[in-house]
């Protein structure tokens, strides 16, 4: 995470974010594994079996399951590059989605004690799939980090190096991929998970 300019009037900040999402293929579903492996060359399959990371084609998300991630509080000036890779880990197939995002993000600024107050700068990631299929959570072995040296507003703000993460669940909103195109009955709403990553300045 690299924080750019903070705009208190517009309540937004610029950031360059690298996001990595990983998931394993179901070991009981050979069809999904064979479908992906069939797109690899013989050389790539040999390299995969030798433990190397292999880059997947650009049309991977069009033909295969993926978590359908999106950023909730992102501005319209988004520049985003998405790549997918595959590797074998302990005989399991692991898929990785890498997102390189350069954009502005909306964040509620509390200026009641300006200039001594501390602002939370957060980025929220969601999935279009219900929590029965996808639950977003952090990887304790790969904690999030922030590049304080590249902070744009160092003369006006102090950027803290502590990163906070939290997962919450939101219910009752629709996506175009919802099969029934209707909300669930009250008390039985399906939920989607939201992962928020925050730093402070």
What does this structure look like?
The chain is mainly β and 201 residues long. It has one domain (2-200): Acetylcholine Binding Protein, Chain: A, CATH 2.70.170.10. The protein has 3 helices and 9 strands. The chain has helices at 30-37, 42-49, 60-63; strands spanning 2-7, 12-24, 54-55, 69-71, 79-89, 92-106, 120-127, 164-171, 191-200. A 5-stranded antiparallel sheet has the order 1-2-6-5-3. Strands 4-7-9-8 form a 4-stranded antiparallel sheet, with no helix packed on it. Strand 5 (79-89) and strand 6 form a beta hairpin.
Observed structural traits:
single chain; 201 residues; five-stranded antiparallel β-sheet; four-stranded antiparallel β-sheet; 3 helices
From the 3D structure, determine the CATH topology.
Answer: Acetylcholine Binding Protein, Chain: A
Q: In this structure, how is the largest beta sheet organized?
A: 5 strands, antiparallel
Proper CATH architecture: Distorted Sandwich
Share in helix: under 10%
The tally of beta strands, per DSSP, is 9
